[in-house]
Each structure stands twice: as structure tokens, then as C-alpha cells.
Amino acid sequence: MEEHKIMLQLAEKLNTLANKIQAVSDVRYVGDEIHNLEHIAEGFRDSEKHYLREENVLFPGLEKHGITEPPAIMWMEHNQIREKKKQLGKLVKDYDAISFQDFKEQLGETVESLNNLLPSHFFKENNILFPTALQVVANEEWKEIKREFDEIGHCCFTPPQLAGASPMVEVKKTEAEAVTASEGILQFETGTLSKEELEAILDTVPVDITFVDKEDAVKYFSKAEKRIFVRTKAVIGRKVQLCHPQKSIHVVNSILESFKAGKKDVAGFWIQKDNRLIYIRYFAVRDKNGKYLGTMEVTQDITDIKKIEGEKRLLNWETSP
């Protein structure tokens, strides 16, 4: 709600600047105003974190309690606001690429839209969405919500006392989590998966994955429908150096040594194979404390990806090839 207040103040300043610009006939006389517009556009651009926290943390928290319609409406309005913020940013960035008259007209329309959207949207959140959340979300859930808010980050204008990182709360395993573990369900920090689900996900990801443990032994590979390089179960337990031609072993060892020493985290290469461009990357896999656990090889055919141009949005899925 404090961020709402500051964004409304930004909108007021924006409106004042726009009115000043409307009264001027020559772009040469609005240098200071354009500069101030850039700062305001930057503030609105950074406000994206405000909406991301709501969409990715608060809304799911409400949906778990059966509250679905208000978040859906708010998300729709977020996208309307995003479009206007995007228009403002582009307009200010390229103001000298169009006539001053066109600039003033477009600025006036964009500012008017923002000044209509923001007060109405924030009123609904302050008086409907947030009070509803306070009624249905439990205290323990708020601790996790705050932690995830901090993970996404705060706006450049968020009051410091509100943006400060909250203490990391140690969450004990619940009885339900203990049961899932006993039933073969893998409990991750960000959710749960069965072995069947996890294996299917890894085999569906459009890349070939191979994992080599900290002792340089091949421990796992995914079984994509169309692997780029052949892998068989016979390779499990084999030293990764033996999986490469003699002439390249020194490079493999150099990569592994740099990963183990913490000097590097990624190594990437690309080759031509059967007239396809193949991108091969190695990633150092570390635990939360930075301890080296092994190396993951990710191989991807990027031939068609390199041809992508323009946009194909989600809404075009059914009408485009």
C-alpha cells in the first residue's frame, strides 16, 4: 500500500510535466521536462517488481484459499498498466524520432490512461484484495510470503523499513511432508514431485542432460525422444574422461578443475552436426553453500531457434503454425 502511494505521486508528477509540455510549442524548450520524464518512466519501469510479487506470491496464496476471481481481475489490470508503462518508456526514449506535436499527443493520451488506471486499480487492491488476504491467509503463510517477496525484490522507491529482508524462518517438516517422503514423493524447496513425474519432466525438457558427479563419474542422463548424442546405460559409473576422444581429454580436465576450484561455473561450445547447429554447455553444480557436487552437460539443437524473429504470443497459439 505504501508503494501504491508513491506510484500515485509519480503519476501526479507525470501529469504536471505533461501539462507543462503541452503548453510549449518547441521541443527545444522542454529539455528539463524530458529529463524529469525519463526519471519518472524509470520509476514506473522498476515498479514491475510490485506486480510480480503480487502475481507470483500473493495471488497463489489467495488461490489456495479458493479466492480466484479478484486475483484474475487484478492480473488483467496489471497487464493494462504494463502496456501504458511500456508506451511511456518508449515515447520518452524516442521522443526526438517523431514530430513534437505527435509526441505531445501521444504523451497526453498515455498519461491520461495511467491516471485513470492506477487510482482505480490501487483502490480495489487496498479495499478488496488486501483485506481479503488478511482474512484468509494464516500467520505462518505470511512468513513464507514475505520471504518470497524478498526473493523477487522490491522497487527502487520502496520504503527501506518495508524492503528490509525478513529473517529466514526455519520451517519444520509438517506431518503431511513426512508422509509424502515415506510414499516416495520428493520434497523440494519449491514443491513436490513423484519419481515418475520428475523422470518424465527431465525426459521432456528439449535438451539432452548428462550429470557427472564430483568424482568425475557419469551418474545420470536424460532419455529424450531424440537424443543428439547416443547414450546407453553402460556409460553409468564410467569416468567422463573416457567418454571423450583422447585429443580433448586435457580440455575436459581443465574445465572440471576450474569448476572444482570455483574459478568458473560455465563452459560453452557449439558445433555443426548433420547440418544442424548444436550448442553444448557445461555447468558447475553446487549446493547452497557453494560446495561442488558435479557437472551437468546440456546439449541443445539451436538451428531453428536461431531463425526466430518478431513475436509469437500465447494468444496466437491456435491460429499460428
Report what the structure shows.
The protein is an alpha+beta fold and 321 residues long. The chain folds into 2 domains: 2-159, nmb1532 protein domain like (Four Helix Bundle (Hemerythrin (Met), subunit A), Up-down Bundle), CATH 1.20.120; 194-307, PAS domain (Beta-Lactamase, 2-Layer Sandwich). The protein is 51% helix and 15% strand. The chain is built from 10 helices and 7 strands. The chain has a 5-stranded antiparallel beta sheet with strand order 4-3-7-6-5, covered by helices on one side. Helix 3 runs antiparallel to helix 6. Mean pLDDT is 88; it is low at 165-179.
Radius of gyration, taken over Cα atoms and rounded to an integer in Å = 26 Å
How many E-type strands?
7
Within CATH, the superfamily of the largest domain carries the name: nmb1532 protein domain like
Mean pLDDT reading: 88
Q: The biggest beta sheet, please?
A: 5 strands, antiparallel
What class, by secondary structure content?
alpha+beta
| Assigned CATH class of the largest domain | Mainly Alpha
The residue ranges in which pLDDT falls below 50 over 5 or more consecutive positions are 165-179
* Principal-axes shape call: extended
Percent of residues in helices comes to: 40-55%
- Contiguous helical run count: 10
* Total domain modules: 2
Q: What portion of residues belong to β-strands? A: 5-15%
